[in-house]
Amino acid sequence: MKHIGLTGSIGAGKSTVAKLLREKGIPVLDADAVAREVSNSLEVRQAVRETFGAEFVLEQGLNRAKLSELVFAKPEARGQLNAIIHPRVRAQMTQLQLELEQTGVGSVVQDIPLLFESKLEPLFDAVILVDAPLETRLARVMARDGISKEAFLARDAAQMPASEKRIRAAVTLENAGDALGLSRQLEAAMVKLELG
Question: What is the pLDDT of residues 112-143, one digit of tens each?
């Protein structure tokens, strides 16, 4: 069974590539979706309350806006939050992958925004990187999330530079906005990595 990682900087288009992979019959596990689920657990809410204070927790989950503001301003806080959430996300992703393996699928892709930053490369046979020019990513994220340019740049700066990710990835998909071109690049990557 092939274990493939999918990653990219904020606004690069990982979600688009994940959707294309699913359309091609490849199961994709979404670390962001698992993180949202894990973050709403009582255990995580209690740990966040104890670490950061009650104002960072809402009745229905975490106060994401307030936490984002904190962790992108203070790297130490980001490390503390990651230490609470990441091990739980990793455990859930591992469980989901095991369940998929038992169905006999040939490949599983894990969509992980901070794959390289979290040093998860050894878990995968190969990593696919989705990349796009900074201005393209900025425009996408501002339109999608309604955040300021400064907030985007802070989030982008918190990630590993794309140039370093390109060196580490087995395949890089260029996603400047041409949907057909992106789909063709993905098909070539699937052949190269023997996915299917």
Answer: 999 999 999 999 999 999 999 999 999 999 99
pTM of the model: 0.90
CA angle 70, 73, 77 (to 5 degrees): 55
- Collect contacts of 18-21 with beta carbons under 8 A, ≥24 apart: 18/109, 18/111, 20/182, 20/183, 20/186, 21/109, 21/186
Q: From 61, 88, 84, select the one nearest 71 (Cα to Cα).
A: 84
- Residue 73's pLDDT is 85
- In terms of CATH, what superfamily is 1-27+107-187? P-loop containing nucleotide triphosphate hydrolases (3.40.50.300)
Domain-by-domain residue ranges, the chain? 1-27+107-187, 33-104
